[in-house]
């Protein structure tokens, strides 16, 4: 089970200062977004140790684009672009910047990346609190191309979302904090995809929060890729 304790949403506007900060010049946008959303969660509650799952639909798309575009135009590319383009580079960077991470893993599964992270947390034998982050950042050069692929039915955006879940029902932390308890998640594929939505691929948390605000306990959410996610919460 997972008890939802805290959640945060971060947009590109929220990291304008961090992007201009020279100390972040070797970090990708994904890395900056991820550090921001985790930092906001940890401002609300202090954790001595926690697990971290980073979910992304597109991965380090901006760094990969910079690597290949530089290679094509200049016949060489900065090594940092290659280093940062690796799938787990965001997790590696965050692990160096933010303390007390017990276990860390990254997941990429398109529009259901965040839900995949939740499934991983439910299946994990670890009883540590877990922060699940969903993150995607698009270079402007690729936005039009990506949206054309989806037939302009989906407007893509960059951003990050994060939520803190508690797992150990016997702990004082679990007992002392209010929150909804997620007991199960189920995936159904090839469903009707919603249209005319502004999304980043890993922002499935927003769907959960919207349903919970309407006092739903068990509910189904259709994701843009054509997957239907069934959530079961304790009433």
Could you name the key traits of this structure?
single chain; 235 residues; alpha/beta; Peroxisomal Thiolase, Chain A, domain 1; 8-stranded mixed sheet; two-stranded parallel sheet; 10 strands; 37% helix; globular
- Which secondary-structure class do the elements indicate? alpha/beta
CATH superfamily: Thiolase/Chalcone synthase
Largest sheet: 8 strands, mixed
Q: What kind of assembly state do the chains in view correspond to?
A: single chain
Protein name: Beta-ketoacyl synthase N-terminal domain-containing protein
Folded structure, characterized:
It is built from 9 helices and 10 strands. The protein has a single domain, classed as Thiolase/Chalcone synthase (Peroxisomal Thiolase, Chain A, domain 1), CATH 3.40.47. The mean pLDDT is 83. It has an 8-stranded mixed β-sheet with strand order 3-2-4-6-1-7-10-9, sandwiched between helices. With 235 residues, it is α/β, with parallel strands linked by helices.
Question: Can you summarize this structure?
Answer:
This protein has 235 residues and is an alpha/beta fold. It contains nine helices and ten strands. Strand 9 and strand 10 form a beta hairpin.
How would the blueprint of this fold be written?
Layout lengths: L1 E10 L4 H5 L8 H16 L5 E6 L5 H14 L4 H7 L3 H9 L3 E7 L5 H11 L6 E7 L3 H10 L4 E3 L2 E8 L5 H5 L4 E8 L8 E3 L4 H10 L4 E5 L5 E6 L2
Parallel strand pairs: 2-3, 2-4, 5-8
Antiparallel strand pairs: 1-6, 1-7, 4-6, 7-10, 9-10
Helix pairs in contact: 2-5, 3-4
Organism: Halobacteriovorax marinus
Protein name: Beta-ketoacyl synthase N-terminal domain-containing protein
């Amino acid at each position: 089970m997972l008890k939802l304790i805290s959640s945060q949403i971060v947009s590109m506007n929220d990291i304008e200062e961090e992007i201009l900060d020279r100390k972040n010049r070797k970090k990708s946008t994904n890395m900056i977004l991820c550090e921001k959303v985790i930092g906001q969660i940890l401002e609300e509650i202090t954790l001595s140790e926690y697990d971290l799952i980073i979910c992304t639909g597109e991965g380090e798309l901006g760094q990969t684009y910079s690597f290949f575009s530089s290679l094509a135009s200049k016949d060489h590319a900065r090594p940092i672009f290659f280093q940062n383009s690796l799938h787990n580079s965001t997790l590696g960077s965050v692990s160096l910047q933010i303390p007390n991470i017990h276990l860390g893993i990254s997941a990429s599964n398109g529009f259901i990346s965040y839900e995949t992270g939740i499934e991983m947390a439910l299946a994990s034998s670890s009883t540590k609190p877990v922060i699940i982050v969903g993150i995607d950042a698009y270079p402007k050069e690729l936005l039009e191309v990506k949206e054309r692929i989806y037939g302009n039915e989906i407007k893509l955006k960059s951003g990050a979302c994060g939520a803190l879940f508690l797992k150990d029902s016997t702990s004082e932390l679990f007992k002392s904090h209010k929150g909804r308890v997620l007991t199960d998640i189920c995936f159904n594929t090839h469903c009707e995809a919603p249209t005319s939505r502004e999304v980043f691929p890993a922002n499935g948390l927003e769907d959960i929060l919207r349903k919970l605000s309407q006092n739903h306990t068990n509910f189904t959410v259709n994701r843009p890729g054509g997957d239907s996610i069934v959530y079961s919460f304790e009433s």
